[in-house]
């Protein structure tokens, strides 16, 4: 069972066009994106130690979440999530690690679905099979149902990754090695894909399509995330 979580929040978030870290974007319910992540994690994984990988205007995130543990990616302006995750894994304690992108607005029930996999020490990628966007990281599986390809260029994709993932304790060093090989501008999915190709890493796709998980890259994503939160409030 993961007792540590990494939130990758070092990037500049240029596509959303804000002068502050994207994770601090206000939501319609008064919270920020990161605040709802912390509340979900603290409610569903109360024993977890939360690490936040920071870079762009890191002081704003540290001030907003002073009780978190922080990892600094000093090359935030020239690297992508592969190197932020690499830093988080290098700094982590023994054991598996759950990680998520710092721009994901998600239903807390997703963590309930993922907990059994973490308890079994099964590496996974949470996926949405109801939608496959051109700009999203997509996946295909092998004959046994494990992920075979994981990138934006996968053809005949079964769905898309939602930005919530887990690496089992026994496989963490393998992923670290492959993230080291990844290019500076690669997403972390490239490290996972390399570990699958070169080391036989077995990663399960976990379907959460009936629940919401929205990565906020553009204004329309923020609008969709707020709509989900408002629906949840009405229920």
Class by alpha and beta content = alpha/beta
Count, helices: 7
- Rg, nearest Å: 16 Å
Number of strands: 11
Helix content: 25-40%
Describe this structure in words.
Helix 2 (58-64) links the parallel strand 2 and strand 3. The chain is built from seven helices and eleven strands. The strands form two sheets. Strands 1, 2, 3, 4, 6, 7, 8, 9 and 10 form a nine-stranded mixed sheet that branches. The chain has a two-stranded antiparallel sheet with strand order 5-11. Helices cover 34% and strands 23% of the residues. Helix 3 (81-91) runs antiparallel to helix 5 and helix 5 (172-181) packs across helix 6. The model has no long low-confidence stretch (mean pLDDT 95). It has helices at 33-44, 58-64, 81-91, 109-119, 172-181, 188-199, 219-234; strands at 4-9, 49-54, 69-72, 97-101, 104-106, 124-128, 138-141, 147-151, 159-167, 204-207, 213-215. The protein is α/β, with parallel strands linked by helices and 235 residues long.
């Amino acid at each position: 069972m993961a007792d540590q979580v990494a939130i990758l929040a070092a990037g500049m978030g240029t596509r959303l066009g804000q002068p502050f870290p994207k994770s601090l974007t206000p939501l319609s319910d008064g919270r920020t994106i990161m605040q709802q992540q912390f509340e979900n994690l603290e409610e569903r994984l109360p024993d977890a130690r939360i690490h936040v990988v920071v870079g762009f205007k890191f002081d704003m995130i540290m001030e907003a979440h002073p009780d978190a543990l922080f990892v600094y990616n000093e090359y935030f302006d020239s690297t992508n999530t592969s190197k932020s995750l690499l830093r988080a894994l290098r700094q982590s304690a023994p054991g598996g690690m759950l990680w998520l992108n710092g721009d994901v607005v998600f239903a807390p029930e997703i963590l309930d679905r993922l907990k059994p996999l973490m308890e079994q020490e099964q590496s996974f990628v949470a996926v949405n099979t109801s939608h496959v966007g051109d700009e999203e990281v997509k996946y295909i599986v092998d004959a046994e149902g494990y992920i075979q390809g994981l990138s934006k260029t996968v053809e005949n994709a079964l769905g898309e990754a939602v930005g919530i993932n887990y690496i089992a304790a026994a496989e963490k060093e393998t992923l670290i090695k492959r993230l080291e090989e990844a290019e500076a501008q690669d997403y972390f999915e490239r490290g996972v894909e390399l570990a699958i190709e070169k080391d036989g890493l077995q990663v399960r796709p976990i379907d959460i399509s009936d629940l919401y998980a929205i990565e906020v890259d553009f204004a329309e994503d923020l609008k969709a995330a707020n709509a989900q939160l408002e629906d949840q409030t009405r229920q």
